[in-house]
Amino acid sequence: MYNMNIVGESIEVNPSLMPEYKGYFGLPGISYNYFLFSNNSFTYRDFHQVRSDDSTEINIDNAVSKLDNKNFLTTQARINLIGFGFHINKNYFTGNITERVIFNFVFPKELLELLNQGNGPFIGQTLDFSNMGFDGTHFREYTLGWAREVNKKLTLGVRLKYLYGMENYSSNVGDLTLTTDANDYGLTTNTNITINSSTPSNHADSYEQFDGLGWGTYISSLNNKGFGGDFGATYKLNDKWSINASVLDLGYITWKNDVKNYVTNAGTYYFDGIDVSEFVSDSSESGNGTLDSLSNTFETVETYNSYTTYLPTHAYLTTNYKINDKSSASALLHATFFKNTIQPTFTLGYNLKVGRHLSVATNYSYINQNFNNIGLGLAINAGPVQYFATTDNIIGALDPLSNNTAHVHFGLNLIFGKPKKEKVIKQEKAIKKEKIAEKPVEKAVVKPVEKPVEKAVVKPVEKPVEKVIPKQDANKAGIAKEKSAAPIRPVVNIPTKEDMQIILKVFNNLEFENGKSVITVSSYPSLDELVNLMKKKTGYILFIDGHTDNVGSAESNLKLSQDRADSVKKYITEKGVDGKRITAMGFGMSRPVLPNSTPEGRKKNRRVELQIQ
């Protein structure tokens, strides 16, 4: 999803990623559905095994053997109740209401070994569970987002969230160690643990409390509130390479409704075990009698204090390489932060646009210390309707019980407005078909003053001089010379022969990337000589006029011509020349020097004219 900016919900992973289409509207409940189950150790099949005779067994020893010293398990679900996004000039605005469920659990390998084998294998050892913890949260987020193209290279984005909590179960482990006595197997425990919960089931009437008030109270009137944000940036190094970075889910929720806290008083305790026969014969509901004895041993206190939990934060760093207008490659580093742990993921991806209606993405990921993760994504546009589906592990999506990671998200949107680049692509295609130029670059054309009139120096206002179009070109065009040239400008200074040689050198070297306003690197040396000339001759002024042929709309051609003139001016001013001495104008296709009916004529008309005085 990170690199599929054809899909509006790509802003969910980086707020600065502006989708290609002018806008989208997410259909309620089906626009964005995300489901994930992931852990870095065992799979369900490691527990539940099938024998040769098709019978099954629970093999805890096998599952425990798959564990790492520190293990991370997560389950997530998110459903967009509504979503929208739209472009306004260089801005992109979004809004979402999303239902989310997150459960994270961090635990050491010794925990399952202790539960499976008891404390016998750990006689005389101290087990440290202080970094263990869990958090399960059901909440809704109300989000408003804004991305802005700061300049041609940098785009920034932010999504601000109001968080509405519904239910939470979480732990806060300050200290938890277990030491098994070598003589009597008794446990000496240092403990400082708090188990928090905020859920309607803590209420005396449980969920029935809403029957009289209506479920609207549960949906919108609880007092569990918080705030959060997502932040992202995109920086284009050049036309091929770009870097994206984002930080998601920086936020918190303060829980106040139906709260219960179970707190163990900080200290050291001794527990000599449970008589198994007493536990088996305990007739109280769910073995509460035995559990009460445990509670008494560890001095557990029940309180009703509000508390705060924090969302697990995600960080992304991506580099993208644009292969061509249809395809790109990427490398992504993703980290999840929870309870002082970091879960890294590394992904290599490839994106391809197949025609106007299909986009395909493939990736290969290192997830949960496992390299067997092949991902697939697609987006299909059928008129105003867009369907998309992606997964980071296609095998896990098809067979989640045999894989560490099972992940899928999909949705259905209404889209409107063609991609911004579509007109430019059509124009480039037309140019290529006609084979207008052999090289994918376009030369700038310089129109120096051929024979300056000395009288104009004395009376510049009375006798202005034009930039002259060669006679043969003017005759072919059938255009009067004084009307086809750039605006009439008075002569302020007469360039010397040496100065004109510098201008002609710019003419021979100035090139732009095809269909764009980007000056090629090979043009820099001659432009630098022009910069030095402008610095030396401080009385000179420079006129830069951009022109195009008639391929494409008048509006797009006018913009391209102005952008090219501005690019030259920007290069020169950034080198230290006062911008007040430079005038850059774009004329689009309004001033041809030859008819646009032939490829050669269109080639001549695509030009940038330079004049110094």
Compact summary:
With 613 residues, the chain is α+β, with helices and mostly antiparallel strands. The protein folds into two domains: 413 residues, Porin (Beta Barrel), CATH 2.40.160; 178 residues, 60s Ribosomal Protein L30, Chain: A (2-Layer Sandwich), CATH 3.30.1330.60. Helix content is 22%, strand content 42%.
3D architecture notes:
By secondary structure, the protein is α+β, with helices and mostly antiparallel strands. It folds into two domains: 8-420, Porin; 435-612, OmpA-like domain (60s Ribosomal Protein L30, Chain: A). The chain has a 21-stranded antiparallel beta sheet that branches. A three-stranded mixed beta sheet has the order 27-26-28. β17 and β18 (327-338) form a beta hairpin. The longest helix has 21 residues, at 554-574. It is elongated, with a radius of gyration of 35 Å. The two termini are 54 Å apart.
CATH architecture of the largest domain: Beta Barrel
Give the CATH level 1 class of the largest domain. Answer: Mainly Beta
Overall geometric form? elongated
The percent range for strand residues is 35-45%
Mean pLDDT: 81
Identify the notable features of this structure and list them briefly:
613 residues, alpha+beta, Porin, 60s Ribosomal Protein L30, Chain: A, 2 domains, 21-stranded antiparallel beta sheet, three-stranded mixed beta sheet, 16 helices, 42% strand
